[in-house]
Amino acid sequence: MNTSEEKSDLEAEVLNDNKEEEINYISESNKEKETEDIPNIYKFGWSNYAEITNGRFAMLGFLAIILIELFSQKSFLNWAGII
């Protein structure tokens, strides 16, 4: 290889590296913007955080009822003494 070909290869590598750094910077800045939109702090009343927390507890409760029914071979209402 002569020096002009080596120089053009080196320039191409530098340009590719710069493009990759720019793409990484853009994707990181987008992630920061997404997390700024929904703060994870508790607020009284109807908020996204409260709804997500209530949904997670509801899923845990439903899973607990299913597991009780599977292991006891009785319905949950019968197991709890309601029926």
List descriptors.
83 residues, mainly alpha, 2 domains, 3 helices, 0% strand, elongated
Structural features, described:
- The chain has 83 residues and is mainly alpha-helical.
- It has two domains: 1-37; 40-83, no CATH class.
- Helix content is 77%, strand content 0%.
- It is built from three helices and no strands.
- It has helices spanning 3-37, 48-72, 76-79.
- The chain is elongated, with a radius of gyration of 28 Å.
- It starts with a helix and ends with a helix.
- The model has no long low-confidence stretch (mean pLDDT 78).
Number of spatially distinct domains = 2
Shape by Cα distribution: elongated
The helical percent reads over 70%
Task: Average the pLDDT over all residues and give the rounded result.
Answer: 78
Which oligomeric form is depicted? single chain
**Helix segment count?**
3
Count of DSSP strands? 0
**What class would the helix/strand composition place it in?**
mainly alpha
Uncertain segments? none
Radius of gyration: 28 Å
Largest sheet, in brief, is:
none
Our estimate of the beta-strand percent is under 5%
Give the helices and strands, then pairings:
Blueprint: H1 3-37, H2 48-72, H3 76-79
In short:
The chain has 83 residues and is an all-alpha fold. 77% of the residues lie in helices and 0% in strands.
